[in-house]
Design a protein that fits this description.
By secondary structure, the protein is of the alpha+beta class. The chain has one domain. The longest helix has 12 residues. A hairpin with a 3-residue loop joins strand 5 and strand 6. Helix 5 runs parallel beside helix 6. It has a six-stranded mixed sheet. A three-stranded antiparallel sheet has the order 9-10-11, with helices on one face. The radius of gyration is 18 Å and the shape is globular.
């Protein structure tokens, strides 16, 4: 009987060691408005860059080192886990970005001023946590490790951040918010 080759066994052991999530390639909808530069979407989600609206079709094509290659509405992009990788895995972050249910159904039920703010990718006082997540995305976990925090830190650009202050589950005020 022939013995399996060492490289084949090593490849099999490596594949078995991968977490199940790394082997899954989810598809669905973008959770939120995502900002991009070229084909790069950073977990900082810089407000000053062009925006892909919440609810765009997204499919994960491949996982790499701190990045995932995705197709969003037929265009190739890379999701870059630039800042929060010590707090969560790439797969955990991607699972927040790729959601099963289209958030546009929720957006349609919001008041007109909230819908307008979400369409512009901005936060206004009185919004709920869910509405802020859809409007500007998840705050990078290296600055805001939990969504129950009373202050969320977001990035207006790679040189400036802003804060969303909460009173209960509604935005109380913004500090340093982008215009």
């Amino acid at each position: 009987m022939a013995r399996p080759s060492i490289p084949w066994l090593a490849a099999l052991a490596f594949a078995a060691a991968l977490p199940a999530a790394a082997q899954d390639k989810p598809e669905g909808y973008t959770c939120c408005n995502l900002h991009f530069k070229g084909d790069w979407i950073s977990d900082a989600n810089w407000h000053n860059q062009p925006m892909i609206p919440a609810g765009a079709k997204i499919r994960v094509l491949d996982y790499g080192w701190n990045r995932a290659s995705v197709d969003i509405d037929g265009k190739p992009f890379r999701l870059g886990h630039d800042y929060g990788r010590r707090e969560e895995s790439l797969e955990q972050w991607v699972a927040k970005i790729v959601v099963k249910h289209n958030p546009r159904a929720k957006i349609e039920k919001y008041p007109a001023r909230v819908k307008a703010a979400i369409a512009e990718g901005r936060v206004i006082p009185g919004m709920t946590r869910e509405q802020v997540l859809i409007a500007v995305g998840h705050p990078p976990t290296h600055q805001t490790p939990t969504l129950s925090a009373t202050v969320w830190n977001h990035w207006a650009s790679n040189a400036g951040r802003y804060e969303v202050h909460w009173k209960g589950d509604h935005v109380d005020r913004l500090v340093g918010a982008p215009r």
